[in-house]
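Q: Could you fold this chain for me?
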Amino acid sequence: MISALLNRSYRHLFAAQVISLMGTGFATVALGLLAYDLAGADAGAVLGTALAIKMVAYVCVAPIVGAFANRLPRRAFLVTMDAVRAAIVMLLPFVDQVWQIYLLIFLLQAASASFIPIYQAVIPDVLLDEKNYTRALSLSRLAYDLESLLSPLLAAALLTVMGFHWLFAGTAIGFILSALLIGSAMIPAAARLERRGDIFRHILRGSRIFLATPRLRGLLALNLAAAAAGAMVIVNSVVYVRSNLDRSEADLAIALAAFGGGSMLAALFLPRLLEKLPDRAVMLPGGALLGATLVFIGLAGQGSAASWPMLLTVWFVLGLGYAAALTPAGRLLRNSSHQEDRPALFAAYFSLSHICWLLTYPLAGWLGASVGLTVAFLALGALAALGAGAAFMLWPRRDPQSIEHAHDDLPPDHPHLRATESGENGSRHSHPFVIDDYHRHWPEQG
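A: Sure. Below is the predicted structure, expressed as structure tokens.
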């Protein structure tokens, strides 16, 4: 994975990601303490509402920004979004009403929903070599996992010498450093293609490309499986560790670390594995593993059968499956779009994938609280299995890049036909197939 970091621009972009993620981890800890400071015993409800607001911002804002991202100077846009996030975070220590938290969280997450998909779309333009891009995806997965492991520990250490409000300052510093690193990177200009049509067509373009591409429909189903597993880990780990196993608060961090450790291990081995196997052969088993593991702990992990080593093992396996199912997603998005459509497609993926989380977060919490963890694990396991099964059906086993297809709607002398090799029928030809203005539907393959 080190070879990807030899590229100076990517090295700066990756460092910006790591620093901003660490700052975001500080903000997560500080926000929980701020909610408790304002709402006391109702802090859980405040955080749950804030999390729902975050998902709504992600789902609604990302497609709008993605539709027009290729008309903006990307480096300046990313730097601006980091500056906006820093400014919003600096306001959080001064709030004294719960509604102010909700407003600032929406604005903060709207800026993040604008930043993240554009950042993700920049990376394949910086790293043109597919092997290096695959390594970059694994590095990104490692960065997220390290943030989940290290930032709470570092925040806890800082809280021994300062008040929690100062953690927001650390978050703002992280965003400012991220902006400086992005500003020092060489980011290629976005490919531009002028199109006619109303604003809604531009906003929905990425979603139309995504949903018209079979492998990406399979990817969305895998995201449902991953969200079901991830929601159970994030929402119900504390209940399982503290109530079912009667373990300490420190053991909760260890349990979450087991999930992150499994994800990190998978991310380390994925680049070599993807050199030998196609994406489908890695991602679909990862999704199936998630469903099977959730059902297993639902059947065997309750009552007298519950044990601390078993929970750590199950969480570790869930981390493996989670990373295997989702880490290669960027490769699918890059191979399923033209360069000028990547910002819209990455934004559409960002939005559609978070719809899955918007479903599974409250489902995991409500089921766990109302009918118990056994039913919650079985229900979310069934949902994960459903997502994995749908991915098997939606993503064809035979999935070549180049597909022979016909253009009965184009004249024989059309520039698109002249630019590619044609067969006996001048309107029939073969080339790497993606959904665009000339290819609005996926061809049938027999």
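A (continued): The two ends are 39 Å apart (CA to CA).
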